[in-house]
Design goal:
The complex is a heterodimer of chains A (112) and B (115).
Chain A: E1 3-5, E2 10-14, E3 19-21, E4 24-26, E5 33-38, E6 44-50, E7 56-58, E8 64-68, E9 73-78, E10 87-94, E11 100-102, E12 106-111
Parallel strand pairs in A: 2-12
Antiparallel strand pairs in A: 1-4, 3-9, 5-6, 5-10, 7-8, 8-9, 10-11, 10-12
Chain B: E1 4-7, E2 10-13, E3 19-25, E4 31-38, E5 42-51, E6 54-57, E7 64-70, E8 73-78, E9 87-94, E10 105-106, E11 110-114
Parallel strand pairs in B: 2-11
Antiparallel strand pairs in B: 1-3, 3-8, 4-5, 4-9, 5-6, 7-8, 9-10, 9-11
The chains are: A mainly beta (112), B mainly beta (115).
Chain lengths: 112, 115
């Protein structure tokens, strides 16, 4: 069965510093991987996805993610964090058919 | 929130009462999903639908039923609410093809408290 793991409950970073939110996955076959963000009292919003092609995927709000097949990782990155990036981030993998499996989430806190 | 309306947004009910949550979409997406979000668990799939009258169970379906009589509406029913069903419920939609293939779009959520 497909699964994703987000090893950190919370990530703290200072504004202007680079940020990384980690995700590892387990799939059979080619992985379809996603990152979503959730702001307080809102539903999840799509950030980016990896289907095939370049290992570095660019998404919304300056975020990017690096796909690493040998390490089965799909870490979310941003070169310079903003206070407004503070939110809950979810990594996800497409399961068989059209279902998606979500990680437990990582809370990002960016300090001014 | 991508043409998805969840109602009600907040509800407080008593143990043992039936509760129905509604999800309405204006995007004409084929697939619809109900999730619950609880601290430490992320999102867990309750039920999903792959077309009108076509539904199936997710990983936490016990105590829940769904119906989809029209493309735009997906109802989630708690037959007899229990305190363990206190949660935030999210509806999502997706399409199986095209540029946005497999991307899920979420409603704003329904916060349900069962006392």
């Amino acid at each position: 069965a497909q699964s994703v793991a987000q090893p950190e409950d919370q990530v703290n970073v200072a504004e202007g510093n680079p940020l990384t939110v980690k995700c590892t996955y387990s799939v059979s076959g080619n992985p379809y991987l996603f990152w979503y963000v959730q702001y307080p009292n809102r539903g999840l919003q799509f950030l980016l996805k990896y289907i095939t092609g370049d290992n570095l995927v660019k998404g919304s709000y300056g975020f990017e993610a690096e796909f690493n097949k040998s390490q089965t990782s799909f870490h979310l990155k941003k070169p310079s964090a903003l206070v407004s990036d503070s939110a809950l981030y979810f990594c996800a993998v497409r399961d068989s058919g059209f279902k998606t499996i979500f990680g437990a989430g990582t809370r990002l806190f960016v300090k001014a | 929130d991508a043409g998805i309306t969840q109602s009600p947004r907040h509800k407080v009910t008593e143990t043992g009462t039936p509760v129905t949550l509604r999800c309405h979409q204006t995007e004409n997406h084929r697939y619809m999903y109900w999730y619950r979000q609880d601290p430490g668990h992320g999102l867990r799939l309750i039920h999903y639908s792959y077309g009108v009258k076509d539904t199936d169970k997710g990983e936490v379906s016990d105590g829940y039923s769904v119906s989809r009589s029209k493309t735009e509406d997906f109802l989630l029913t708690l037959e007899s609410a229990t305190s363990s069903q206190t949660s935030v419920y999210f509806c999502a939609i997706s399409e199986p093809s095209g540029e946005a293939k497999n991307i899920q779009y979420f409603g704003a959520g329904t916060r349900l408290s069962v006392l």
